[in-house]
Amino acid sequence: MVNHALILDLVERLAGTPVGQPVELDVAAGTSDADEVAANTDLVAAWCRASGNELMEVRPASVVVRHGRRRDPLASLDPELLPGTRLWMYTNFDCNLHCDYCCVASSPQTERRALGADRVDRLAAEAVDAGVRELILTGGEPFLLPDIDVLVASCSERLPTTLLTNGMLFRGERLERLRRMDRDRLTLQISLDSATPEPHDAHRGPRAWERAVAGIRLALDEGFDVKVAATLPAEQAHEIDGFVEFLGDLGIRPEHRVIRAIAHQGVAEEGIEFTAASLVPEVTVTADGVWWHPVAAIDDSLFVRREIFPLADAIADVRERFTRYREAADQAAEWFPCS
Ligand code: SF4
């Protein structure tokens, strides 16, 4: 028999409770029959599903119901930003440059810490099943690896792939490796910070600008889609218009221009501060494990887990943490309203 009194009691109590707050309801009132208590619990659960309220917890003799449902932080994200839509892989950490704002402290002396062809291949294969739509390879400088063309092929044969590079090593064997890459499925993203050599070289080293521009021109001539990514210190903000015009002259399409500020990560002495609560995650894999975001792939506070595989579990872990952080932030807002 349906316990109408129980539901009426719940409706009355929720009506006097602010949205988002819980009420505890006695489901064992007037009975010691375990089957009846279970039936009452099932009844409340069914009513919550039908009425847009949330059954938060089932206790031995009571249930806790939230007035309304907590919004799903993942559902509020733009689908393109859903963690796991893009998968970042750090192929290696050593680099021919040692830029003074490198977010992962790369340099010629940095230990390689290569992800390796086998793991990249397995990640790319699992990414397809896990719903990843784009693979992004970064470093360090990926063209230092003797098998970078193999790594890229593992990725681009499965999903659209972007390869980040400083564009300075397209010569000899490395140029041949570039030429073996799939022009239809691969985008090259080359770093360039300014329309003239001085600002770029001030952070990246002598003649870095000249060689990066030559790399961009070569990649375009070879028929690759090329994105340009600039890291712009605050004092260079006034140069953006001239820089954008320069990129247009180089032949870089508007949607292929990425301009970002310096992050206070790695060897950067200043820049934007990030925490897991303030940064929408982008699942990032390195030889050391899974990280919250590629901009913080050596920041212990943004380390997610040691186990890379199965990739689907790593993505689920990042999503679950994101949901938890956002819910905690919402609760904090409830406890400390600002107006
Ligand atoms: S910012 Fe890029 S090019 Fe510069 S040291 Fe770091 S990985 Fe190398």
From TrEMBL:
<keyword id="KW-0949">S-adenosyl-L-methionine</keyword>
<keyword id="KW-0411">Iron-sulfur</keyword>
<dbReference type="InterPro" id="IPR058240">
    <property type="entry name" value="rSAM_sf"/>
</dbReference>
<dbReference type="Pfam" id="PF04055">
    <property type="entry name" value="Radical_SAM"/>
</dbReference>
<protein>
    <submittedName>
        <fullName>Molybdopterin biosynthesis protein MoeX</fullName>
    </submittedName>
</protein>
<dbReference type="GO" id="GO:0046872">
    <property type="term" value="F:metal ion binding"/>
</dbReference>
<dbReference type="GO" id="GO:0003824">
    <property type="term" value="F:catalytic activity"/>
</dbReference>
<feature type="domain" description="Radical SAM core">
    <location>
        <begin position="81"/>
        <end position="311"/>
    </location>
</feature>
<dbReference type="InterPro" id="IPR006638">
    <property type="entry name" value="Elp3/MiaA/NifB-like_rSAM"/>
</dbReference>
<keyword id="KW-0479">Metal-binding</keyword>
<dbReference type="InterPro" id="IPR050377">
    <property type="entry name" value="Radical_SAM_PqqE_MftC-like"/>
</dbReference>
<keyword id="KW-0408">Iron</keyword>
<dbReference type="InterPro" id="IPR007197">
    <property type="entry name" value="rSAM"/>
</dbReference>
<dbReference type="InterPro" id="IPR013785">
    <property type="entry name" value="Aldolase_TIM"/>
</dbReference>
<dbReference type="GO" id="GO:0051536">
    <property type="term" value="F:iron-sulfur cluster binding"/>
</dbReference>
